């Protein structure tokens, strides 16, 4: 078999034809501002989860985790950047208030 034919066959195997492409719908790419806000939201959520994990296992711990999760899920569909910034700012303020209580419960 000639080398060019082998290369063509190999190339055909390695490429994905449009017919066999994934059936999962593609989401639109985020622009830079949306991407940065998304990262800030995720960072805030991680910080809150880490802080609540420091509370000894109790109903209070579960209640705080549930409250945080519900707030994030409730605002999941917000796409307006100004509103997202406002929500992150309010979330940080609420977290600062909650953090004093969490530190007290964690015995710091």
Roughly how many Å apart are the termini?
Answer: 75 Å
Average pLDDT level: 81
Radius of gyration: 24 Å
**Class by helix and strand content?**
mainly alpha
Query: What does the largest sheet look like?
Result: none
The amount of helix comes to: over 70%
Q: Concise description?
A:
This protein has 108 residues and is an all-alpha fold. The chain has four helices and no strands.
Description:
- 70% of the residues lie in helices and 0% in strands.
- By secondary structure, the protein is an all-alpha fold.
- The radius of gyration is 24 Å and the shape is elongated.
- The termini are far apart.
Keyword list:
4 helices, 108 residues, mainly alpha, elongated
Note the topology.
Layout: H1 3-14, H2 32-53, H3 59-74, H4 81-106
Helix pairs in contact: 2-3, 2-4
């Amino acid at each position: 078999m000639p080398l060019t034919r082998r290369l063509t066959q190999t190339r055909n195997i390695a490429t994905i034809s449009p017919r066999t492409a994934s059936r999962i719908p593609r989401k639109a790419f985020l622009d830079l501002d949306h991407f940065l806000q998304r990262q800030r939201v995720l960072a805030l959520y991680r910080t809150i989860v880490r802080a609540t994990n420091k509370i000894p296992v109790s109903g209070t711990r579960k209640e705080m985790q549930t409250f945080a999760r519900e707030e994030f899920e409730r605002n999941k569909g917000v796409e307006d950047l100004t509103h997202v910034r406002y929500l992150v700012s309010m979330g940080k303020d609420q977290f600062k208030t909650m953090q004093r209580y969490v530190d007290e419960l964690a015995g710091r």
